[in-house]
Amino acid sequence: QVQLVQSGVEVKKPGASVKVSCKASGYPFISYGINWVRQAPGQGLEWMGWISNYNGNTKYAQKFQGRVTMTTDTSTSTAYMELRSLRSDDTAVYYCAREGEGMDVWGQGTTVTISS
Amino acid sequence: SYELTQPPSVSVSPGQTARITCSGDAFPNQYAYWYQQKSGQAPVVVIYKDSARPSGIPERFSGSRSGTTVTLTISGVQAEDEADYYCQSPDSSDTYWVFGGGTKLTVL
Predict the structure, then answer these.
(1) Could you identify which of A22, A78, B48, B72 might form a hypothetical disulfide with A102, taking C-beta atoms 3.0 to 4.6 angstroms apart as the criterion?
(2) Residue closest to A37 by CA, chosen among A94, A78, A112
């Protein structure tokens, strides 16, 4: 079946970096882009950016420009999101979501906690 | 930056109709999408391109647009519909996605 499976829980110190993976299966990987969306505790959804799995083109939300890098590995059907210079307010659940008819397939989420 | 405005909460009794609105300046030219998020779960798209319903989404979910406001309507609300609902659209230049702040639907 069509699914996105994300990497596990991360705990990081302020100033560190985190790299979250999102492995796709059940559909042609390069035919759909991947969005990254995060949700801080008790808060709403926040779009971080998008990557084309066809050619690697990216769009990043202005808030994260310079601090986020999204990449893709077509050989393993895996998308990655790296966030640098982590702060306490980066504590959130990070989701990958396929861009089909809307964001039609979501990963299970990866909890990233920033704590000294 | 572009914003989408939703009411923080809506409450209805079972069997009634719930309407959740979302306002945004780009709506005359951009599609709206709606997501349902139940507690502790990933979001699920319930409406795409203003009014289209993905397979597997019950017919009681519908979407509409009037000017700069889009509306998610849930007819005959059931207890299982209690969730947070988010609208979404691209900005007017199709550069980035924006989510509304979310509406908590409570089934009384």
Answers:
(1) B48
(2) A94
Euclidean distance between CA atoms B76 and A1, whole angstroms: 31
At A26, the amino acid letter reads G
Q: Please, are residues B71 and B21 in contact by the beta-carbon 8 Å criterion?
A: yes
DSSP B44-79: EEEEBTTTB--TTS-TTEEEEEETTEEEEEESS--G
Is residue B43 within 8 angstroms of chain A, CB to CB? yes
pLDDT tens per residue across span A71-110? 999 999 999 999 999 999 999 999 999 999 999 999 999 9
Q: pLDDT at residue B26 above 90?
A: no
Residue type, A6: Q
- Interatomic CA distance for residues A36 and B5, integer angstroms: 21
CA–CA dist B20, A6 (Å, integer): 31
B40: number of Cβ within 10 Å: 7
